[in-house]
Amino acid sequence: MKHPYTMPGLTLGILGGGQLGRMMCIEARRMGITTICLDPSPNPPAKGVADLCIQGDLYDPVKIQELAEKAQVLTFEIEHVNTGYLQTLETQGFTIYPSPKSLQVIQDKFVQKTLFAQANLPVPPFARTYKELNLPFPLVQKTRTGGYDGRGVSILADETQVATKGLEGETFFEELVDFDLEIAVLLARSPSGETAVWPVVEMVFDPATQICTKVCAPARIPAEIEQEAIRVSIGAVQVLDGVGVFAVELFVSNSNSNGAPRVLINEVAPRPHNSGHWTIEGSLTSQFAQHLRAVCGLPLGSTDLTMPSVMINLLGEPGAQGKPTIQGYEQALAIPGLSFHWYEKSLVSTQRKMGHVTVTRPNLEDALRLADQAQNLLTITGEPL
Amino acid sequence: MKHPYTMPGLTLGILGGGQLGRMMCIEARRMGITTICLDPSPNPPAKGVADLCIQGDLYDPVKIQELAEKAQVLTFEIEHVNTGYLQTLETQGFTIYPSPKSLQVIQDKFVQKTLFAQANLPVPPFARTYKELNLPFPLVQKTRTGGYDGRGVSILADETQVATKGLEGETFFEELVDFDLEIAVLLARSPSGETAVWPVVEMVFDPATQICTKVCAPARIPAEIEQEAIRVSIGAVQVLDGVGVFAVELFVSNSNSNGAPRVLINEVAPRPHNSGHWTIEGSLTSQFAQHLRAVCGLPLGSTDLTMPSVMINLLGEPGAQGKPTIQGYEQALAIPGLSFHWYEKSLVSTQRKMGHVTVTRPNLEDALRLADQAQNLLTITGEPL
Predict the structure, then answer these.
(1) Is the pLDDT score of B204 beyond 80?
(2) How far apart are CA A251 and CA A263, in angstroms?
(3) Could you tell me the pTM of the whole model?
(4) So what's the pLDDT on residue B143?
(5) In whole angstroms, what is the distance from residue A285 CA to residue B107 CA?
(6) B281 vs chain A: nearest CA distance in angstroms?
(7) Is the pLDDT of residue A149 over 70?
(8) φ/ψ of residue A248, rounded to 5
């Protein structure tokens, strides 16, 4: 640590003040940790819960330096930040977790995948050009940097679509995996290399928007798939020398040559992740508390499941704009085991993540059924400002 | 409701901004409820998490009116408030839960006990004077109003101590119950009379200070005692026509004439309570979230236990003063299943409640053992400002 501290007094600087930063700040309040967020918005979701919000661009060296000077540890809740300047700060002795180096690798999906492949971790076949890839269409094209929530991904049915549906900028191509299931492994790694892994979860995506709509904890998968997914995910975070909470999204597929299920790494997020929101209710340590523990060099908490949990995202309805309003709030709160989470975003838009709910029940089937009820009851619309 | 609302937009006014108000505000943030606290301190524990803190005395009609005008619902986190003015506001159409009437009854322990006795709820024998009580010494003398955490209570060994150790002001006398155990029943009641009860807990008090040091959930008591405690507690809250979360503290004693265990009501708190802090981790709905649901007229949440939990209070060390510092923080966080809660009070003093920790484990014996470890590791001292 560049600055010594006693408790309370440990201050964490967070690049970004969105819902992930917000939920980190709430846990920090409980744990006696002070938080300062840097966010371009004057009124980001973390505003009401952080000790201080600095308004500024996440690429502005002056603002990042200001944040660093006030904190003992720096972290981020979004990957789109000035990694180069974070590296400069690191050489000046500032503590930054995950390290700018791991972030830089993750920011470039092509570099990330190359590193995993070199470490013999299973990834779908990929190459810079579709000719190099040498696989039959359909193929997936991805931008190397900047994509999220389905942005920066294009599925190309045949060679003619490379011209018509191809992406701009630096891209690469990979096999369109015919997966049966998408799962995620959420884990934390401390500066000393200690890891703590939560039970593996299933992720359900909207086929149209590719936004995650539902997460089911634990995943309904055979033990050998779970073990393989955990092995691969710990390997991936070790290869990245990651410190903090990481989410590894994986495909489970039956389509390899000998018919045995295979597990393939899709993407890695170097931070708390939508697939881990269920941990607030469903685990002894939430992903946000765990991230604080990990990046502050504190002992990791127990990742034991307390009860099966299903999380659904509350997204802005198609066409919604203006001030958000919640329909079905009271009815949803009548669902047993339901916890409601609102992110306090001042504006709603189509598919924007406005909040989430988690249903926690003694058995997963009930949690799934009740989460579907909540999904049907709750809609987020907008009204004129 | 005097003011209509849509969600988000429901605003709760809270008289008091101490640790209970703070923990209400944290849950409110999650649930999309706006909070405004009134507190005499410029920097109360709720400051960093409430949407607004008004500085002012809890007996000042002008300040209470200001709070009420900004909110759809009023509640309180401390009993020492201007009940008379709240009654005036209620007649003006403001929604206040628990009602000023129930609060008024609870504020006067003599009136409270009289009401319970009239409803055939079990209370220790009591009377205005020790002569009326007509029981052998030792006896307990209590002030009718204003006592808490052992203040306002005196144990008198014999008649001569009535003069030497007797309390000032309006008091009453009651039997010194030779109890085996102190337990608490935490429950919520909605405006429509729906109740939700958490598992009964054991409370452990420091014999010297009479401050609660440890709470053990669930209580290790026979099922018939648990059922009787719940029956009596629901009865007490119904008699008070209570709305919100209530904690009923009871004595369990073997000392009645036929040797069967008896359950006696000791005190009722008309708000979330120290005996319910464990619900943040150990139950599907925390007492703070449930209080918000109840006073806002929303459906009550599930009070199911997720895992056995033991809570210990973090109190200022004897002689501690100045800026608080935490010793043993990192070591305590290594205890499996431990959650750390800090209240952000700017000054520490002897026995002041500065925070708490909860240890949640698959079995209660482990939770108890680990909570004792935490108790030994953690000390809260002070340093000069």
Answers:
(1) yes
(2) 6
(3) 0.96
(4) 94
(5) 38
(6) 7
(7) no
(8) -110, 115
Which pLDDT value is given to residue B257?
58
What letter represents residue B45's amino acid? P
Q: Determine which helix (DSSP H) or strand (DSSP E) holds B332, and give its type and residue range.
A: helix B329-333
* Interface contact B27, partner A, CB < 8 A: no
First to last CA, chain A: 45
Q: Which of A9-13, B2-6, B304-308 has the weakest average pLDDT?
A: B2-6
Q: For chain B, what percentages of helix, strand and coil (3-state, to nearest 5) are there?
A: 30, 30, 40
Instruction: Tell me if residue A165 falls in helix, strand or coil.
Output: coil
- Does A56 have pLDDT greater than 70? yes
| pLDDT for the residue numbered A210 | 79
- Residue whose token pair is 């008896």: B262
Q: Which helix (H) or strand (E) holds A131?
A: helix A130-133
ipTM score of complex: 0.95
pLDDT tens digits along A183-220: 999 999 999 999 999 999 999 988 888 788 999 999 99
Predicted local confidence at residue B149, as pLDDT? 64
Query: Is residue B53 within 8 Å of B36, Cβ to Cβ?
Result: yes
Sheet holding B153-156, edge to edge: B126-127, B171-175, B139-143, B153-156
Q: Which residues on neighbouring strands pair with residue A249, listed in sequence order?
A: A184, A267
- Which residues, other chains included, contact A123 with Cβ-Cβ below 8 Å and sequence gap of 6+? A113, A116, A117, A264, A265
Q: Which percentage of chain A shows pLDDT scores above 70?
A: 97
Check residue A52 and give its pLDDT.
98
Rg (CA), chain B: 21
Chain B residues whose CB is inside 8 A of the A31 CB are 340-342
CB of B218 less than 8 A from some CB of A:
no
**How many angstroms separate the CA of residue A115 from the nearest CA in chain B?**
33
Residue contact A31–B336, C-beta within 8 A: no
- DSSP for A89-113, please give it: HHHTT-EESS-HHHHHHHHSHHHHH
Return d(Cα B197, Cα B194) in angstroms, integer: 10
Distance of CA B239 to the CA centre of its chain: 18
**What's the pLDDT at B1?**
58
* Partner B contacted by A318 (CB < 8 A): no
Residue B16 in this model has a pLDDT that exceeds 80: yes
Residue A163 in contact with residue A156, Cβ under 8 Å? no
Q: Name, in order, each residue with C-beta under 8 angstroms of B223's C-beta and a sequence gap of 6 or more.
A: none
Question: Which has the closest alpha carbon to A358: A308, A326, A311?
Answer: A311
Of A29, A284, A334, the CB nearest to B299: A334
pLDDT for the residue numbered B254: 74
Q: Is B174 within 8 Å of chain A by CB?
A: no
Interchain contact B325–A (C-beta under 8 A): yes
Exposure b/e, A331-365, CB count within 10 A at least 16 = b: ebbebbbbbbbbbbbeebbebbbbbbbbbbbeebe
Which SS3 state, helix, strand or coil, does residue A343 take? coil
Beta strand segments in chain B, E: 11-15, 34-39, 52-55, 73-76, 95-96, 126-127, 139-143, 153-156, 171-175, 181-189, 195-197, 201-205, 212-217, 244-253, 262-269, 309-315, 323-327, 338-342, 353-360, 379-383
